[in-house]
Design goal:
two-stranded antiparallel sheet; 4 strands; alpha+beta; two-stranded antiparallel ribbon; rod-shaped
């Protein structure tokens, strides 16, 4: 397909202005403040953490606040400038989220091998234990709270991050001396 270009028309921007624009925009990436960017990421993580905590209360998984309080942002660093944020139950002190995986995924039926110490040989329990050699301790049904929070809030978090990063870029570009119309 052949296109006819009108050579008589003036370009919208001349080469000097375009060179100035590209040079200044290349400097924008280095001017973004890391603390503001980290705050935006943490804001997105807070949405997930709050949704997971509400799921714990709503599905009846917890009666006490230990597991709910343990769900939050886990901050790590990969290198000097790369934040690594996760949302989930925190296992380290003072948090008590060590059994969150059992609530999320459940467990299989567990058995324990029980001896006959302290029991009379004619009791019904002794006869049952002698026949099987193990006693069921039950199973825990899964009551997921993290996966539904992620699925429900995924679009909301993406929109939040998109808007906040656009605001940060616009603010940084304005500081460089450019003006949006």
């Amino acid at each position: 397909m052949r296109r006819d270009y009108n050579t008589d028309s003036q370009p919208a921007i001349d080469a000097r202005q375009f060179k100035l624009l590209t040079d200044n925009l290349q400097n924008v990436a280095g001017k973004i403040e890391q603390k503001k960017f980290n705050a935006i990421l943490e804001g997105g993580c807070e949405i997930f953490a709050t949704a997971a905590q509400l799921n714990l209360y709503n599905n009846g998984s917890v009666m006490m606040g230990g597991l709910v309080d343990s769900v939050g942002i886990i901050r790590r660093r990969k290198g000097r400038w790369n934040p690594y944020l996760m949302v989930g139950p925190r296992y380290y002190k003072p948090h008590r989220g060590s059994w969150a995986h059992i609530v999320e995924y459940g467990s299989q039926e567990r058995f324990s091998h029980v001896g006959l110490r302290g029991m009379r040989l004619q009791s019904r329990l002794v006869k049952e234990r002698l026949s099987s050699g193990k006693v069921s301790r039950g199973a825990v049904k899964p009551k997921p709270f993290m996966k539904p929070a992620f699925n429900d809030k995924k679009v909301e978090v993406m929109n939040f991050l998109r808007n906040k990063v656009a605001e940060l870029l616009e603010e940084t570009i304005r500081k460089q001396g450019f003006d949006f119309k």
